[in-house]
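During the practical work, I selected for study one protein's amino acid sequence and its backbone structure tokens, as given directly below:
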Amino acid sequence: MTLEQLKMLKMVAEQGTLKASSERLFKTQAAISQGIKQLERQLGIQLFDRQKYRLVLTAQGRQIYQRALKLLDQAREIEMLSHHYMTGNEASITLAFEGSFNLLKVLPILEEIQCQYPDTQINLQQEYLTGAFNALEHENTDMVITPAGQLGINSKNVQALALYTGELINVAAPQLLARHANLHSVDELVKEYQIVVQDSGTGTKGLTLGVKEGQRCWYVNDLTTKKILTLSGMGWGRLPRYLVEEELKNGALERFSLHEVEDEMQVTYYAIKQRSRLLGPVASQLWKRLSALSTSDQGNNDV
């Protein structure tokens, strides 16, 4: 059984005559007739009722026809996939992003890439603090989106695009703040727990950033866990403003200020790629679209 025979089966079943089928397949009627008969001999069943003017599928032929359609669709998918790779398109690309980044900012771009290159797998890799840039350094990702201010990035080695500026703000649940009616100093929170997201990279190894010595801490691996603990009143900490806007509106969380700690931190997120690494066609299109976003969003600091 060959794909060519299945194509003949499909065409004859849909056209009903050898003449019409031959015109569409650009084959002689004799070749199509011979191909169908060979397929019937191989399968051991009669596919068509030849008693009428038009060729009509038998009951068994209809079952074979339905399965043949699936096989032909799969064959077309394989051909399209092969063509996709022959043109140099990647099997997959990876975008690593720092966990505080608002992914909604680039969702339309990702959707465009997905629609334009459906056969390229897009991997989104969430990292924290220096983890995304570490992934780029070790070539575990094609590009990253991350704050770049404290990474010590050498502009000779990487190309960076400023995408937008967001805010990280101090928040806590009302029940925690109620225990500190006149809260002004971080020292007053020493018996409370500060919730800290651990670095998924190595850039802050041995360092404890933004934590006062002696402060009790919860250490977590993601912002979702940090937010849940904060909402429960089990601790306090900084969270991206976009992530807690609804809770701030309904009173589930409240902002607060401390003398020694900035109550909000401005963070600029950059798309970054290595200059020495040649991107494939799909990754290049993603970078091109991020470049356009960078151009259009200059001066837009809305999170």
Q: What stands out?
A: Confidence is low (pLDDT under 50) at residues 298-303. The two ends are 59 Å apart (CA to CA).
